[in-house]
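Section 5.1 Outputs to date
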Amino acid sequence: RADYDLTGQLVWPGAVLMNTYLSEHPETVKGHSLIELGSGIGITGILCSRFCKEVVLTDHNDEVLEIIKKNIEMQSCSGNADAVLTAEKLEWGNHDHLSNIIEKHPVGFDLILGADI
């Protein structure tokens, strides 16, 4: 089945701006745990994993989540990430998805990140 909704499969201008800012100001996220909403392919969250202690990337699209997981795997192999980096399904307004994330991360997150959402 082809997914013709490419929304989560592109790097949007807001993500480029966010990544530039975070690269220039890593202290913004350093040592924090964060959840990224609408992660798409995961580029922003993966960048944050270089500075954070934990990063959870989320998206509602199953095909995009598979891309995120492959990107996390490649990042893990590179040895550049300091953070625990995971991906979770999150469709906004879906109580089950939210409950699953809360169950896995009961202390919550220091920061909520979103670019082009």
